[in-house]
Amino acid sequence: MAAEVLALGRVCALGLYRRYPFFAAYLALDISRTLGSLVFRSTPVDVNYLLVWMMTEPLLVALELLMGWELYRRVCEHYRNFEALRGRLLIISGVIAISLCVLSICLDVSHLIGQLAVVYEWLLARCVTFVLAAFLATSALFFATFRVPMRRNVLIHGWLLASYYVSTAVYAIAIQAHANKYASDCVFMGIQTLIFLGWATLLSNRGETVEVWPEVTKAEYDATSAAKEQLLRIAREL
Question: Domain residues of the chain, as ranges?
Answer without folding.
Answer: 2-237
